[in-house]
Design a protein that fits this description.
5 helices, about 150 residues, globular, mainly alpha
Length: about 150
């Protein structure tokens, strides 16, 4: 599987989990916690794959615009990973505050996914050959399996 297809598959899973989480009610305390934990795990792996494998390849192959795109995408990850998600993880799942924070995280992630799929990924396809995208995809699949194994062991 090439790198772009793998990342789009991840996007679909995260969007599905976010949709499921955002439709829960305050009474679904346990389900909300489980969904949030699953989203956190998926985002941690996905973010690493992008930041350690795809983004550097685009940055290296591109010019000034791609470098700008690289830093913007990393900053969007940082906003979710360092600010929004930790806040959400420390919010009682049975509250309206939790629902509000889920909505904000969902909007941020959907915006980020839309930008990647409409701008970053097409740029990657222009800059990187099919062969390179396949090789990056294989590297990502290997890394993903390893990271999932580490999460299960933790």
């Amino acid at each position: 599987m090439n790198a772009i297809d793998l990342l789009i598959q991840d996007h679909k899973l995260v969007k599905k989990l976010l949709e499921e989480l955002s439709t829960t009610t305050e009474r679904a305390v346990k389900k909300r916690g489980e969904l949030l934990h699953k989203i956190e795990q998926e985002l941690q792996i996905h973010t690493r794959l992008e930041e350690e494998i795809l983004y550097p390849a685009i940055k290296q192959a591109g010019g000034k615009d791609e470098v700008k795109m690289y830093y913007e995408a990393k900053e969007e990850h940082r906003t979710v990973d360092s600010l929004v998600l930790p806040d959400l993880l420390h919010t009682e799942t049975g509250t309206l505050e939790f629902a509000g924070r889920v909505k904000v995280m969902k909007e941020l992630l959907e915006h980020h996914i839309e930008e990647e799929e409409s701008e970053l990924f097409p740029t990657a396809k222009k800059l990187l050959s099919k062969k390179i995208l396949e090789e990056l995809g294989q590297t990502m699949e290997t890394q993903k399996k390893m990271l999932k194994g580490e999460q299960r062991a933790a």
